[in-house]
Known about the structure:
Elements: E1 2-4, H1 9-13, H2 17-24, E2 25-26, E3 34-40, E4 46-51, E5 57-58, E6 74-80, E7 85-89, E8 92-96, E9 101-104, E10 111-115, E11 124-130, E12 138-140, E13 148-150, E14 159-165, E15 176-182, E16 188-189, E17 194-195, E18 199-206, E19 214-220, E20 223-229, E21 233-237, E22 244-247, E23 252-259, E24 268-269
Enzyme class: isomerase
GO molecular function, one term: 4-deoxy-L-threo-5-hexosulose-uronate ketol-isomerase activity
Organism: Emticicia aquatica
Amino acid sequence: MQTRYESSPKETAGMNTTELRNNFLVETLFSTNQIHLTYSHYDRMILGGIMPTNEVLTLPTYEDLKSTYFLERREMGIINVSGDGKIMVDGQPFSINKLDCLYIGRGAKNITFESVDAENPAKYFVLSAPAHKEYPTQLMTKEAASPAQMGAVETANQRTIYKYIHLDGIKSCQLVMGLTVLQNGSVWNTMPSHTHDRRMEVYCYFDIQQGQGVLHLMGQPQETRHLWVSNHQAIISPPWSIHSGCGTTNYSFIWGMAGENQSFADMDFVSINELR
């Protein structure tokens, strides 16, 4: 498990491309029969990818957590972005297909991940945040996530938003999680942009076609920076930073947040004309 420390707006304004990528971009999420995790000091969020093929992978604990098991003081949200899979939580099986979400509450000890078909393996994107109480483990399919249509063809941001872990969905201590699917011909996400100083955010980009990419915008609204992102890569977004993107084609992305406020609408909007 890698560790990423916090960077202030002042530090970030002086970073070159390599420094920006090293601090805010997680380039490798999925490898065959591997668990890749990154511990961010922004709200103590852990993000990562789990890709079982012909093996069953068990979630370990890590020395850095100073706990006897991974979710002793944490909760976890998982969204599958590829083939069908199965997750076992303390002996209880959950079938999780593409775009389904599984929330696992604090206190779960034994968690395993597997794929139904090794030729089309599941790819689990995971987020974990500190938790102060237990909420029940719960599966939500994409059909049950109340998909909402937003945007327009004219502004190239026609999209479907799926909300899984939030105040009116799966209950959690502080984790908020969902995903957005852009329609054909649409490329912009989260524009006009916003910040929310009460919580950090993570983006995981997926379903980016081979040879295509997403230009992710970050930084303070008057001091923006950019990162080129490929398929199955993630961005760590500080509370003071915008988080918007424009693709060379349509794509999808998972968004997840942790902090002191779970309200999905808690956003400090920034006019497009104010961006620099």
